[in-house]
Write a structure and sequence with these properties.
The complex is a heterodimer of chains A (314) and B (253). Chain A has helices spanning 2-21, 34-53, 55-59, 68-93, 99-107, 125-145, 151-179, 183-202, 214-219, 227-244, 270-280, 284-312, and strands at 255-257, 262-264. Chain A has 314 residues and is an all-alpha fold. In chain A, helix 2 (34-53) packs antiparallel against helix 4. Chain A starts with a helix and ends with a helix. The chains are: A mainly alpha (314), B mainly alpha (253). Chains A and B meet through helix 3, helix 4, helix 7 and helix 12 of A and helix 1, helix 2, helix 3, helix 6 and helix 7 of B. Bound molecules: fe (ii) ion (2 copies).
């Protein structure tokens, strides 16, 4: 009995791998290896949590935006990120988990989110730097994911990328205007880039040699490019943009190479990355606390909504 | 007071109320009880900030001193602000925010409905556009009044307490003065009429939610927004909001 199941499983797994190899898109009702499902749930929920935690550093400046139009566009941007979170949670639910369960894992500290959001936003320029660099890095990642093998994730990425492009432009514009302003404004913009540059490069994750999930994810075409490739792509497109408005980068090894037609650059501080990922970044505690507080303060509201629905819709 | 001065004051009242209320709602972004509410509250904040930009720009034109929306938003102190007192009250818990928004959006729906018939073209156009938005706000807030009022015993008690606390500031909505008198030429509605309609709207929802209309006869009601007599909260809100333009005068962002 057991032998047949195993043989059957092997057969199915082979058929699945063939589909992937042919470049077919896997849909929720299709058979998939348990491990594929698990990896996707892990990746997609991390992504959704990141969108949600990502609301906090930028949300920090909504009340202090320097003009009414900036206030409106920042608010709209952060709201988009909430929408991304919601959308990716829904896409994850197609794999047979629910949002509540995923949120709980996150609140219990058992799920990761992007390390970048554990850095503080100290000035208005940080809003520009986040839009330009952080959304810029997200675009590079998500454009690649838009071609991934899982249908709902790939479609979510396509839709989200459009908005991220807009965020990216908006962030760049904030910094451009500051770079045309007073000496104080220029200094503020440069300082933001100095603080956010390396953490943005860390967003692509560890080097491929040290990325435990990479090999498997690439075999399944969940990931189509290595972390290092995507990071390089980001650097190559971002550095000229910064230089165009007079910004510099905090990396004295950064240099364009005519031979590779690409930038050479320095060394990421992986100790810092590990510290931030394991909960010891500058704002990890505050970010988690903010989400927990929102969850706790909302408990009586959700309970009321449930009680009301039970009374009136049953 | 000339008609122009009265209109200027009137535009400030509308613009400041939207701005301050929108600012308060925006403080929820990232902290709401449900992700769906993060989105809904941000959306409503965006509507209100959009409304305030239209009215402050109009006020700037009427004033004729070259002040644009940002000059008016960022360079007036609390005493010059004309927003309704309820709009500036801190968010409290979600129930307080809902009760506050319920009372205010019911007021703004009623007011904007009348303003769609205003003889002033700008006010008229503003009201046409904003009314649709505020009708959605009122529906959203009313739905929550029902859920909280008819949810659990805890939610009922909480939202009733918030409603009572907010109610103290509702006389301020209808505090007609010389500005309103001058604009009784078809420009702006009679606030006594607005009050009658508003009371019918809020009473029906409050009753349906199983809540009590707060007692007013013995209660002390707060007003003063028309003259810029605010609660202490507005100054802190403005300190946050105006920080950058005040700290770096003459800069563009
Ligand atoms: Fe996003
Ligand atoms: Fe974004």
């Amino acid at each position: 009995m057991e032998a047949t199941v195993t043989a059957d499983m092997l057969e199915r797994e082979k058929a699945f791998n063939d589909r992937i190899a042919r470049g077919e898109v896997i849909e929720p009702k299709d058979w998939m290896p348990e491990r594929y499902r698990k990896q996707l749930i892990r990746m997609m929920s991390q992504h959704a949590h990141s969108e949600i935690v990502g609301m906090l550093p930028e949300g920090n400046w909504i009340t202090r935006a320097p003009s009414l139009s900036r206030k409106a566009s920042l608010l709209a941007k952060v709201q988009d990120e909430a929408g991304h979170g919601l959308y990716i949670y829904s896409a994850t639910e197609t794999l047979g988990v629910d949002r509540l369960e995923l949120t709980q894992q996150f609140l219990d500290g058992n799920a990761k989110y992007s390390s970048i959001f554990n850095y503080p936003t100290l000035s208005w320029a940080d809003i520009g730097a986040i839009g330009w660099l952080v959304d810029g890095a997200a675009i590079v990642n998500q454009t690649a994911l838009a071609k991934c093998s899982y249908g709902p994730y790939s479609r979510a990425m396509l839709r989200i990328c459009k908005e991220e492009n807009f965020h990216h432009k908006q962030g760049y514009q904030i910094l451009s205007i500051m770079m045309q302003g007073t000496a104080e404004q220029k200094e503020m913009a440069q300082d933001a880039v100095n603080r956010f540059w390396w953490p943005s490069l860390m967003m692509f994750g560890p080097s491929d040699a040290n990325s435990p999930n990479s090999e498997e994810l690439m075999r399944w075409k969940v990931k189509l490019h290595s972390n290092d490739d995507l990071r390089q792509r980001f650097i190559d497109r971002t550095v000229p943009q910064g230089e165009a408005i007079g910004l510099t980068f905090p990396d004295d090894k950064l240099k364009y190479s005519e031979t590779t037609r690409s930038y050479e650059w320095g060394q990421i501080n992986w100790d810092e990355f590990k510290a931030v990922v394991s909960g010891n970044g500058p704002c990890n505690k505050q970010r988690m606390q903010a989400r927990k507080t929102a969850e706790e303060n909302g408990q009586w509201v959700r309970a009321a909504a449930e009680a009301y629905a039970a009374k009136h819709y049953n | 007071m000339t008609k122009n001065q009265a209109l200027y004051e009137y535009a400030l009242r509308l613009g400041d109320t939207s701005l301050v209320l929108g600012h308060r709602l925006s403080e929820w972004c990232g902290h709401a009880p449900l992700l769906e509410e993060d989105i809904a509250l941000s959306n409503m904040a965006l509507d209100l900030i959009g409304q305030s930009r239209l009215m402050l720009a109009y006020a700037g034109t009427l004033e004729g001193k070259g002040n644009d929306e940002d000059a008016l938003a960022y360079h007036r102190d609390a005493r010059q602000y004309r927003n309704l007192l309820l709009a500036e009250q801190p968010n409290g818990d979600f129930g307080y925010t809902i009760a506050r928004h319920f009372l205010l959006s019911a007021y703004l729906v009623t007011l904007y409905q009348k303003l769609t018939k205003s003889s002033d073209e700008t006010l008229n156009g503003f009201a046409q556009k904003s009314l649709k938005e505020m009708i959605y706000h009122l529906r959203h807030a009313s739905d929550w009044m029902l859920r909280l009022g008819d949810g659990t015993p805890e939610s009922k008690q909480r939202v009733q307490e918030s409603l009572d606390a907010c109610w103290l500031f509702t006389d301020d909505f209808f505090d007609a003065d010389a500005v309103d008198a001058i604009l009784q030429d078809g420009t702006a509605p009679d606030l006594a009429d607005i009050k009658t309609t508003w009371l019918v709207t809020v009473t029906s929802v409050i009753t349906l939610a199983g809540l009590q209309i707060p007692a007013t006869t013995n209660g002390f009601m707060r007003s003063g927004s028309r003259k810029g007599n605010h609660t202490e909260y507005l100054g802190h809100l403005l300190a946050d909001m105006q920080f950058i333009p005040r700290a770096y005068p003459g800069t563009k962002w």
